């Protein structure tokens, strides 16, 4: 595969489709609109409206618990916490309390994005999450950059979400990921697997991210050592391990819907034998090239799995997942991009918040990953995607917890905005808007082990999203953002517009990387 095919022009050939918000040098966000924006989107403490008690009055509250919406409520915030939620006619506010009249508006918990690969200027990416109402993010391939962002956000230097940060990918050898995507820990046996778990704990990871090429020996060693070290393990279910086995071993979340196709098929044993024969070239330095080869070999096996779908096997497996508390993160966004490439948009308003050279590279890179499919293969893969939607509906119907995540870091997915599209895809899979909001708030919070976010209730963190329209009537109304509350700091409409404009300006001023810069990014993006 040539550099011209893999990449785009202007020195981004090696950055790849899975680059997400590419690792580049950002420029300061300078605006004349306010001191807060003039200090850049990093000046989190200046974005808010001061200290003391703040009350949002006469608002309809969708509290994230699944309860019916409560009209004409007042929500009081102080010190980064919700201190009261009560009917506006009954609550007494302290003298001097600042009030925001939200008559006709809807207030809900901030959204939780359960699957990201964030990489880019700190003047762009963290702020995009917060300003789109995504107030908590789970990073699925942790790097020092993410820990630095989290430190700055916590200290008030940077506007951004709460960050749950995973380890580097821990995979078998050879991994699907070459060195051009960043750090991957390859382990060949149980001893190396245990050392990897201890290493990532020392490095500050919140969980161990496991991947598809792990041997059975290595995977179960990771599961045992992670339990000993007090770390969750989660990610891809390895090809060598059945989902039910992984769930029983404490696998916290299953990412994507690939392994579920195999586990719900009466052809599973046959397909597992064929999976053993799938090979990648360990000498291939391009992750794009490796993945293209992998797709070509595995899509026929997925098609075979769909043809053998067995509802009885499906029900039994999903009951087991529900019993063991294993969450599924469907990431329909990345499935749609890589399985329906003919349907991806040619332009979108949200793309202006990323550098133009990055956006312009996406079509060539998508072709590098998905090109060469015959009309019959395209038809089959389209049916595979439709089957994934049915699995999501069945998972939910059997009581399996779902969490909303996108695989942001993959092309065509813009940080923050992509989660709103994921919510619409979950509705297209058969969930109601209320069920989808639950997957992006309370259920996601439980999945991430965060007891103080995900609902609007006294004592909870004040991470809130205020909407102009009712998301329970139309899930796309989550994009009708009036304002956001980030760690107790109210960002009203005008200030939010100024900050988004500053993000856009910073993205426009971000130069492309040097020729041959190593590809960074997703680390999962659409692995079958």
Q: Please state the average pLDDT score.
A: 87
Roughly how much helix do the residues carry, as a percent range?
25-40%
How many beta strands in the DSSP annotation?
16
Strand content: 15-25%
Biggest sheet descriptor: 8 strands, mixed
Distance between the termini: 21 Å
Uncertain runs: 1-40, 42-50, 516-528
User: Radius of gyration, Cα only, in angstroms?
Assistant: 22 Å
Class by SSE composition: alpha/beta
How would you sum up the global shape? globular
Number of helices: 19
Give the arrangement of secondary structure elements:
Elements: H1 3-6, H2 35-38, H3 44-47, E1 54-61, E2 70-78, E3 81-87, E4 98-101, E5 106-109, E6 111-116, H4 125-131, E7 134-139, H5 144-155, E8 162-171, E9 184-186, H6 190-202, E10 207-210, H7 216-229, E11 233-235, H8 243-248, E12 253-255, H9 258-263, H10 268-276, H11 287-307, H12 311-324, E13 327-329, H13 332-339, H14 356-370, H15 375-397, H16 417-428, H17 433-439, H18 442-448, E14 464-467, E15 481-486, E16 489-491, H19 493-508
Parallel strand pairs: 1-4, 1-5, 6-7, 7-8, 8-9, 8-10, 10-11, 12-13
Antiparallel strand pairs: 1-2, 2-3, 5-14, 14-15, 15-16
Helix pairs in contact: 6-7, 10-11, 11-14, 11-15, 13-15
